[in-house]
Write a structure and sequence with these properties.
By secondary structure, this protein is an all-beta fold. The chain is about 0% helix and about 20% strand. It has one domain. The protein binds zinc ion.
């Protein structure tokens, strides 16, 4: 039996609509063209309730 740690491959901001996709090649989030959202936004990622950068 193996333990699999799942991590989100996509996330989107519920505030400005920015979407990001995880790129394994560079180990970083990549933003598709045109989905940058608000630069000044404190992004609130709608993933699975985890990985929230800010407490509310
Ligand atoms: Zn945002």
């Amino acid at each position: 039996m193996s333990l699999t740690i799942r991590s989100p491959e996509e996330r989107s901001c519920v505030r400005c609509g920015r979407t990001e996709a995880w790129n394994e090649d560079v180990d970083a989030w990549r933003v598709p063209e045109g989905d940058e959202g608000e630069v000044a936004c404190i992004h609130d990622w709608d993933v699975t309730g985890e990985f929230r950068p800010v407490e509310r």
